[in-house]
Amino acid sequence: MEDVWIMDSGCSRHMTGHRKWFSSLNPVSTKEYITFRDNGQGKVLGVGSVSLFGKLSLREVAFVQNLGFNLVSVSQLLDEGFEVHFKKGACCILDAEETLVFRVDLTSVSGPARCLDASPSADIWKWHRRLGPLSIDLLVRLSSMGVIRGLPELKA
After folding, report:
1. Three-class secondary structure assignment of 79-138
2. Is the dihedral of CA 155, 128, 42, 33 positive or negative?
3. Which residue range or ranges hold the Retrovirus-related Pol polyprotein from transposon TNT 1-94-like beta-barrel domain (predicted)?
4. What is the radius of gyration, based on Cα positions, of the chain?
5. CA distances (Å), origin 63, targets 44, 59, 95, 149
6. Which domains does the chain have, with CATH numbers?
């Protein structure tokens, strides 16, 4: 899985556990941890830039200790102005001018099926269903800002 990048709609930011992917990497000044499905944690060792196969440049990628997967955050791509389209057999990433930047051929993906689960609380899933396609990260931020009446403060 070291050379495979997974498009993840539930992940709040791009992340990898493999130093080799970074073209630039800066240490973080605060202690930040990513919680895994088994409740283990990986320390964020740095943040930097990654070039995927010379075609797509990812910024603000977290270098996470003990992370066994490479994750591309769909929500982070959208926040950066890209469009992400899932079609039968492909995932296409377009820039602001709607030029194709990167295409993932989903028909060539092989290996056992996997489900990555960060297991947010039941309250977050309840509000996610009520409010539509908001990322978990955005729901947590909105709840802490108090901008939605009736939305309690949520924790991921």
Report:
1. HCCCEEEEECCEEEEECCCCCEEEEEEHHHCCCCCCCCCCCCCHHHHHHHHHHCCCCHHH
2. negative
3. 5-82
4. 16
5. 6, 12, 25, 36
6. 5-108 (2.40.70.10), 120-156 (no CATH)
DSSP string of 20-39, one letter each residue:
GGEEEEEE-SS--EEE-TTS
How confident is the model over 20-73, as pLDDT tens digits? 999 999 999 888 888 776 667 889 999 999 998 788 899 999 999 888 888 999
Q: What is the pTM of this model?
A: 0.67
The DSSP H or E segment spanning 139 is helix 136-145
